[in-house]
Automatic annotation (TrEMBL):
<comment type="similarity">
    <text>Belongs to the LacAB/RpiB family.</text>
</comment>
<dbReference type="InterPro" id="IPR036569">
    <property type="entry name" value="RpiB_LacA_LacB_sf"/>
</dbReference>
<comment type="pathway">
    <text>Carbohydrate degradation; pentose phosphate pathway; D-ribose 5-phosphate from D-ribulose 5-phosphate (non-oxidative stage): step 1/1.</text>
</comment>
<feature type="binding site">
    <location>
        <position position="110"/>
    </location>
    <ligand>
        <name>D-ribulose 5-phosphate</name>
    </ligand>
</feature>
<comment type="subunit">
    <text>Homodimer.</text>
</comment>
<feature type="binding site">
    <location>
        <begin position="9"/>
        <end position="10"/>
    </location>
    <ligand>
        <name>D-ribulose 5-phosphate</name>
    </ligand>
</feature>
<feature type="binding site">
    <location>
        <position position="137"/>
    </location>
    <ligand>
        <name>D-ribulose 5-phosphate</name>
    </ligand>
</feature>
<keyword id="KW-0413">Isomerase</keyword>
<dbReference type="Pfam" id="PF02502">
    <property type="entry name" value="LacAB_rpiB"/>
</dbReference>
<protein>
    <recommendedName>
        <fullName>Ribose-5-phosphate isomerase B</fullName>
        <ecNumber>5.3.1.6</ecNumber>
    </recommendedName>
</protein>
<dbReference type="InterPro" id="IPR003500">
    <property type="entry name" value="RpiB_LacA_LacB"/>
</dbReference>
<dbReference type="GO" id="GO:0019316">
    <property type="term" value="P:D-allose catabolic process"/>
</dbReference>
<dbReference type="InterPro" id="IPR011860">
    <property type="entry name" value="Rib-5-P_Isoase_Actino"/>
</dbReference>
<dbReference type="InterPro" id="IPR004785">
    <property type="entry name" value="RpiB"/>
</dbReference>
<dbReference type="GO" id="GO:0009052">
    <property type="term" value="P:pentose-phosphate shunt, non-oxidative branch"/>
</dbReference>
<feature type="binding site">
    <location>
        <position position="133"/>
    </location>
    <ligand>
        <name>D-ribulose 5-phosphate</name>
    </ligand>
</feature>
<feature type="binding site">
    <location>
        <position position="100"/>
    </location>
    <ligand>
        <name>D-ribulose 5-phosphate</name>
    </ligand>
</feature>
Length: 152
C-alpha cells in the first residue's frame, strides 16, 4: 500500500485530520508532518517537509492543506521533483493525475466541503497518468527545473 505524506497549516488542520482518518481506513501508510492543532502557524514549515518526503522517495504521494491551498501549492512546487496541483473539485483532481501526473495535491479547507475534499482525494488516488503528449509536456517542465533546457 502506498505511503502518503501530509502537511498543513492551522487553516487546513481539520481537513488534514479528516483526510488522514479516511486514508488510514483505506489502508494507506501516512507520514504526518503536522501541524497538530488550529494554533496559527506558517504553512511553509509543514508543507515543504511533506513535499520533500515525496521528492526524496519516503512517500509515494503528498497532500498539503491550507485555507485556500494557494500558498501551499506554491510552497510544495518549490521542492524539486514535486508537481503540486491545487484541486477544487473532482474534475480538477482527475486532470491533476491524468494530464499532470501530480505527485502532490493542495486542498483549501476554507474552499471545499468535507465531502468534496474526500471525493477529490479519492479521484486523484484512483486516476492514472495518461502519458503520451502529457509526458512530453511534464518532461519539458522537469527539464527546465533541472536546468537542462532554457525556455528563452
Ligand atoms: O491558504 C493559505 C495560504 O495560501 C493559508 O492557510 C491562509 O493564508 C491562512 O490565513 P490566516 O492566517 O488568516 O488564517
Amino acid at each position: 500500500m502506498k505511503t502518503i505524506s501530509l502537511g498543513t497549516d492551522h487553516a487546513g488542520y481539520q481537513l488534514k485530520e479528516l483526510v488522514k482518518s479516511h486514508l488510514e481506513k483505506k489502508g494507506y501508510q501516512i507520514i504526518d508532518f503536522g501541524t497538530s492543532s488550529e494554533e496559527a502557524v506558517d504553512y511553509a514549515d509543514f508543507v515543504i517537509p511533506a513535499a520533500e518526503a515525496v521528492a526524496h522517495g519516503e512517500a509515494d504521494l503528498g497532500l498539503v492543506f491550507g485555507g485556500s491551498g494557494n500558498g501551499e501549492a506554491i510552497a510544495a512546487n518549490k521542492v524539486r521533483g514535486v508537481r503540486c496541483a491545487l484541486c477544487w473539485n473532482v474534475q480538477s483532481a482527475l486532470l491533476a493525475k491524468e494530464h499532470n501526473n501530480a505527485n502532490v495535491i493542495a486542498l483549501g479547507g476554507r474552499m471545499v466541503s468535507d465531502a468534496e475534499a474526500l471525493a477529490i482525494v479519492d479521484q486523484w488516488l484512483e486516476a492514472s497518468f495518461e502519458g503520451g503528449r502529457h509526458l512530453r509536456r511534464i518532461q519539458k517542465v522537469g527539464d527546465y527545473e533541472t536546468g537542462r533546457a532554457s525556455r528563452r
